[in-house]
Amino acid sequence: MIPSRKILALLLVVTLIYWSQKSFSQNTENYNQVISEIIEELSSQTDVEVDYSTFVDELNELVENPIDLNTANADDLSRIFFLSTFQIQSLLSYRDSTGNFLSKYELLVVPGFDISDVEKVWPFVAVSQAGDYFTLRSIVYGRSEIATRIKSTLETPEGYKSSYSGTGKYLGSKPSVYARYSYKSSDKFQVGLIAEKDAGEPFFDGTFNTGFDYLSGYVLINKLGKVKRLIVGDYHAEFGQGLTFWNNLSFGKSLGVVSGHKRANGLVKHSSAYESEYLRGVGGTIGIGKFDITAFGSYRKIDAAISDTLEDGEFAFTSLPETGYHRSISEIDNRNNLDELVAGTNVTLNSRRVKTSVTYVRSKVFGENQKSLALYQPFPQSYDKNVVGLSSDAYIRSSNIFGEVALQLNDLRVASLVGGSFRLSNTVQLGIIGRSYNRFFNSRYTAGFSEGSGVANENGIYTAITVLPAKGWKITGYVDVFSFPWLKYRVNSPSTGRELAAQTEYTVNANFDITVRYRYKQTLQNYSESVSQIIPVIEEVNHRLRLEMNYAPLEILRLKTLLEGVKFETDSTKREYGSLIAQDFFVKFRKIPLELSARIAVFDTYSWDTRIYSYESDMLYSFTVPAYYLQGTRVYLLLKYSPTKRLDCWLRYAQTRYANVDGIGQGADYIQGNTRSEIKAMVRVRF
Amino acid sequence: MLLALFLLLSEKLWASIPEKPIGGVGAGMGNVWIVPTSSKWGGLGNQAALAYNREFWVGLNHENRFLVKELGYSTLGVQLPVTPGTLGFSISHFGYSSFNTTQVGLSYGMKLSKSLAAGVGLAYHYLQVMGDYKSKSAYTVEGGIIYTPVDKLTVGAYFFNPTGSSFTETETLPPLLGIGLAYAPTNSLSLMVQVDDDTETSPSLRVGVEYFAVKQLAVRVGYSTGNLQGMTFGLGWNIKQLSVDFSMGYHSVLGFSPQLSIGYSPVLKRKVK
Predict the structure, then answer these.
(1) Which superfamily, per CATH, for B18-264?
(2) Complex ipTM value
(3) Of A180, A240, A431, A613, whose CB has the highest number of CB atoms within 10 Å?
(4) pTM of the model
(5) Is A230 within 8 Å of chain B by CB?
(6) Of B185, B207, B230, which has the smallest distance from its Cβ to A427's Cβ?
(7) Residue ranges of domains in chain A, CATH in brackets
(8) Between the CA of residue B55 and those of A315, A429, A646, B52, what are the distances in Å?
(9) B255 vs A contacts (CB less than 8 Å)
(10) Residues of A in Cβ contact (< 8 Å) with B252
(11) Is the Cβ of A397 closer than 8 Å to some Cβ of chain B?
């Protein structure tokens, strides 16, 4: 029997559907656009270019095996990583009080979901009554995907020329090659393989055993009886708030109240071409009652610059490069020199509203650290670490409270974090995160909320607010005040700083929205132009103002206009400005299966200090967030052609043209002339 | 402590000598004072806020800046409703035996229409520095308006010392102008934004949030980019006629500044309309 509340809700939903029919029917057909919009939102909040392939993969998987709103628990729903904990809990309480979902449209009446949230979630959820199944048939009738990508710059950097006599001459050819294969049968059984050759790396000439410099793969089993997850091969592990162990991608400070809160997914497959920070071995999670018990082990070769062989046969190293480039003799010499062991376990107690977990991880690099010590390092860092951590995540009366304490057993140093997000009214959310990391904490794989790099040498309070003052309006902002109690890289004294940001988004209608964002950051840095022996520390202030407009004048055409200005000042009377103007075009043809994106941009910044990062559209599994600096123009053109449902082809051309320069880059990367152009093509087949 | 005193006497932080008792409520929200908060302390900040208090009220406030004993600031405030507005009286003392200021203020605020209130104040400032320096004094004028265009929104404006009175040429009481905005989406929540600028320091932006977790208990958080820069936190407890507000400001270099305010409105038989 259907309760009367439910009928009322459905009536409301039907009206809403009628009103919003157009946008939903479009999205169900074209989930790719939804995914790229989500990824764009993620990467436009940060200033670094990272490989989001894992997220794209995860979302693509969800499209093929959507989460059932009627059977999902909080863990399942948190796979949709852009949902807030509040939204997940709200959805679960809605289901508890009104019974099973009858239609996806019912999401529109769940508190905390507005139309744009539902549009975003739409491809990733389903409403069905079907039970859980896992048969031999589902393994045999899985889906495979093969993608191959080739990329090259058109100009030839000096390092490739036979006449080049400087250091770091490239032994390989200019194009980079990337190939991936994946096989999935429901979300239960997955296999993946990735091979990559970076630009300049030798390729099938005997230098590397496998031909490719980088080869990675995994076999993954999900939810098989008591085994919640089993991974053999390359994977990541993430627990708690990232203070004890987290070697996957994570998001730092960004606008939005929930941004600082992490939802750990335990063991996750490694399906990107990022050649560092992954584990290689076996890991598994078993569910026993309310407990999830995870154990994992990894033993793999890592790159190291070896300086000496010690008496006991152990190597001494002076650095552990993580770029993954093996293009020149010295880079190839460093390749796979040392062994690294990482092993750990995690026990999580799950209840409906509280999740508590204990993690222990041992990590060891088999070599002696002979890195030269910088001023901020009073003693050599140990590469043999035992870390234990306790974390908790609780949801009480529309508030989410979380925290983690991590302890390095070798030297009893502590890092801790406490935070909360609070729904103060239907329109206002507030988040606070306080952190205190010992100055020499420095565990090897961490990703705790921080301003500096890594979980070490930092205290701070971060406060964020989101206000929905009226229909179509969204205001977000944060304040972060922090201090570094010890010296750090390029700061020869203990220092303090602060960062403020505010953003207003106004959605005028379905075809037009406008966003204005301002960021202010003040930190202390060494005075780089100092001529004295004792380098003074000076204040650096960065202002960034950004305007973005999205509009869709025609059904097949979408436009985006971007204006950004930067002002950089220091105590030493230095004052620099920078600006970027960019116009993006997205065309989706109706009669032919062709999509086109393009950008024309003009940038004018005084130097690297006033650089501007800007997200660019790219093909699947590629992510481009270049730094625009100096003066010049940049254009790109991306074509996607999908002749059949199983075949997609991409072609991308990008060119940066600098004004007033004779050459670009340094050393082996130096290009004569004032242009740098790149061409890239990819083919993907699914069967 | 010596460092703090040195900084205080150095030019840049001279303006940090409190000109104004903000009270534990505003101090918890990034030191806002132009738009009235849920408490009666607003009347000491922007005189127009006096118009909203129709009860006899007496309040005591003590601030200890950066936890330095010599930087204590105490205030006694009294508000007396008359017809048609409300009268305010305050006396404050800052500093220690070798360096101190005393302020005595008289103010009046009233409603001009249903949505508009205005107020003015007159203050006498007395500065005493030990040694060869002479004591000095000055008079200042201040005032403001508060306007409520719609239910959830309040706008305020405030000026201080437009005539530019000062103790001496170097020891000034810089003129200040500011505007504030309060947005209250529900009865239990207020968001505050304030921008103010005096002629000697760069403009300050202040933002604050006040949330009544339960009816009697308020939690506050705020941030100010200038005087006093840093995060602030506050707690407020209202029980019948008594209000107790505690706040803590944090400056990343100079440290913590706690503030405690107690306000009381005795129940009087004759209510003034």
Answers:
(1) Outer membrane protein transport protein (OMPP1/FadL/TodX) (2.40.160.60)
(2) 0.76
(3) A240
(4) 0.85
(5) no
(6) B185
(7) 4-131 (no CATH), 555-687 (2.40.160.10)
(8) 81, 34, 77, 9
(9) none
(10) 481-483, 496-498
(11) no
